Amino acid sequence: MSTETLEFQAEARQLLQLMVHSIYSNKDIFLRELISNASDALDKRRLAGLQDDRLRADDPHIRIEADKEARTLTVRDNGIGMTRDDVVGLIGTIARSGTAETLRRLKENKENKESAELIGQFGVGFYSVFMVADKVTLLTRKAGEETGTRWESDGDGTYTIETVEDAPEGTAVTVHLRPADEEDALHDYADEWKIREIVKRYSDFISFPIRLGDETLNSMKALWARPRSEVKDEEYHEFYRHVSHDWSDPLEIIQMRAEGTFEYEALLFLPSRAPHDLFQRDARHGIQLYVKRVFIMDDTRELLPSHLRFVKGVVDAADLSLNISREILQQDRHIQMIRRRLAKKVLSTIKDLMRNDVEKYRTFWREFGAAVKEGLLDAGEDHKAILDIASFASTEGEEPTSLADYVTRMKEGQDKIYFMAGESRAQIENSPHLEAFRAKGYEVLLLTDPVDEIWTESVREYDGHELRSVARGAVDLSEEDEVSEERTGAYAPLLTWLGETLDDVKDVRLTTRLTSSPACLVSDSEGLTPALERMYRAMGQEVPKVKRILELNPDHPLVSGLREAHERSADAPELTETAELLYGTALLAEGGDLTDPARFAKLLADRLARTV
Ligand SMILES: Nc1ncnc2c1ncn2[C@@H]1O[C@H](COP(=O)(O)OP(=O)(O)OP(=O)(O)O)[C@@H](O)[C@H]1O
After folding, report:
1. Which of 152, 188, 216, 418 has its Cα between 20 and 30 A from that of 158?
2. Whether 23 and 170 share a structural domain
3. In terms of DSSP H, where are the helices of 314-380?
């Protein structure tokens, strides 16, 4: 086949532009990325070789060749290689979700430091080579295939691709180096000394030999098998980058070793920020499984519950078979045991952070709290541990509070933990439901993650204290606050009439919940909340329209006035309109949507016209 010139996909082109103009100051890392890809390719080939003998590689390794004259640097592996379609699909496009959004933000921040961080989050991988290259040539042949592919690009909008007969199995990436420019931190990457230094720093733990001439540059020591005291943080960080594809440093390192009947070692990392696909179904999970130092699989979901899917790292189990499959893993009793132990260890590490390093804890919870709380929807094993490490915004102060701290601040006579769930802090804080709680000085937790609406349905207590929504059921702040029977009696005809007139409410009653608003809407203690109703609908589930209870504040002039008007003449037409306005106002006050805003606006305008 002749040489074809193809265009990079639009997003890939933008990312390349950013690389060519090199917004990332540490250019050395291009070599780390190439070596990391080579190592992944060797892992894949080893796995393929287990299925099919013919795919096995003799002497799997990575080789670096530098040519000072020609100013080229080549990274060669005898790994799995790529077909022509692979090259077009994997190198010519970026398939990751959220790409466009990340690029938009990157562009906006072109000059500032945040760019480097953003790009780190994104992980540009192979493209980072264009920070140092004028031109890149990639020659590859997929293990077991007859022909190879040659790909070449100078990083502008296009690349060339051709089929070749004489490529060795595996992949060789040849970087045509730009002239060194020390001022721009563009070092001489054809210099063997520099290569040695970079490999030692970033890729020492790679489990295949990285050769330069006759020399093997890396120690190949498995980091998780070395005692913590002997490993520098920097080495852990590099390893984290290799397993996570995240360019930033991890927030916390967790090392574990279990001896006895079932031995395993684990080296886990809490990232310092959430990946953009944290809430996408197909997001990568971060655990690699090894058996006796040999890589078995990526993305081992069986090793951690899904609410801890952001944890990255390695588990090396001593007693599993080398060709264990995912299907077997799912049923393996030992794997289930490891999963429980790892989950407990991760949660207890976060608890330690909460005590000993509040800053780190806060970062962690801000980034991952919403995911961790999903664990409250599973069968209860970790509920207590999750509630212990959770924190929530609250009417008391700006910083989030733990439940334990909330309990210590509970008022004399208060036995419940009160919360309100909603879309934003501002919306909840303005909601009339909070009025009586505020008047009494009771603290209310403000829950704003979508998952909060769901877990609070099933988790009903913490440490012996009921968790109670302030927008649900009747308030029972104290006995003396109950609406007197005498009053209820006087209001009975109005309440009955309102119940009959307003189709959208289930019941109408008086309340002590309100101090300044005339009315509010509450869910009864069993019914769905409006947010949950919306959520089920969004998921395509049929749910009946939920009706709520309209609660009235008998101390409000609008409500007492309405009672008098109703007494005078129960069938005056304005009365029905006032009822509608009252209901609409309650809905607006909590940030809800009117079913017929035009009608509401008209009624209101007519009324106002009469007052001016
Ligand atoms: N040496 C190689 N051998 C075989 N396949 C490779 C090689 N280098 C890259 N690839 C393929 O190209 C894909 C894209 O590589 P790239 O480095 O851009 O991203 P990545 O490694 O998947 O993730 P990240 O961007 O986070 O590093 C890889 O996932 C791999 O499938």
Report:
1. 188
2. yes
3. 326-331, 333-356, 358-372
Atom number, ligand 1, closest to the C-alpha of residue 75: 1
Which of 85-99, 235-249, 416-430, 457-471 bottoms out in mean pLDDT, i.e. has the lowest? 85-99
Q: Tell me: the pLDDT tens digits for 66-92?
A: 999 999 999 999 999 999 999 998 887
Atom 14, ligand 1: residue with shortest CA distance: 90
- Number of the ligand 1 atom closest to the C-alpha atom of 79: 3
Distance 287 CA to ligand 1 centre (A): 18
CA distance 41 to 335: 26
Concatenating the DSSP letter of every residue in 114-182 gives HHHHHHHHH--GGGGGGGTEEEEEEEEE-TT-S-EEEEEE-SSSEEEEEEES-PPSEEEEEEEEPPPBG
Q: Report the predicted TM-score, pTM, of the whole model to 2 decimal places.
A: 0.77
Residues with CB under 6 A from ligand 1: 33, 37-38, 41, 77, 79-82, 90-91, 123-126, 171, 245
Q: Are residues 285 and 350 in the same domain?
A: yes
Report angle CA 97, 98, 99 to the nearest 5 degrees. 90
Res 122 pLDDT > 60: no
For residue 197, tell me if it sits in a domain.
no
pLDDT at position 45: 95
Pocket test for ligand 1, best of 19, 32, 36, 40 (most atoms within 8 A of CB): 40
pLDDT in tens, 284-300: 778 999 888 888 888 89
